[in-house]
Amino acid sequence: MSRPAAKKPEYQKINKDLFVLTYGALVAQLCKDYENDEDVNRYLDRMGYGIGTRLVEDFLARSCVRRCHSYSEIIDIIAQVAFKMYLGITPSVACHNSSRNEFSLILDKNPLAEFVEELPAGRSALCYCSLLCGVIRGGLEMVHLAAEVTFLQDRLKGDSVTEIGITFLKKLDEKKYRRKK
Where is the signal peptide (predicted)? Predict the structure, then answer.
């Protein structure tokens, strides 16, 4: 008797609209629970960090990306593979300094804010999508890269684009990754 071929596990995708609406309800509840916008921002960032630390394993298993040797390679993978895989968008990338450790991801469209037209009244310091910063920071830390991730511009605050700034805090040790011959 022959055995049936092993099936790959199927990943069920959650409906994007359901996720975005659920996220909106979460932010609304946090705004009710916390008076201070900074507390809401910190909570969303911490929540995103937890998601990022768990998501990186799934990302590495499903994406089949190779080891990166520069920060620009890492940013390209985040923009072209990770954002496309999980949010269905591909942000553009900009480098901000000559040492090539400061980058921006520029989102023409932010799926998390798709159904949001403006921030709630009196919540001008709220960073509605702080979750994204935490996810990126958590994922990078799991592959041993310390980074500072912040929103530089936000359409919900009247800016022309949504821009996430990523600053790598530690120099990548390229010697560590060279193969011995």
Answer: none
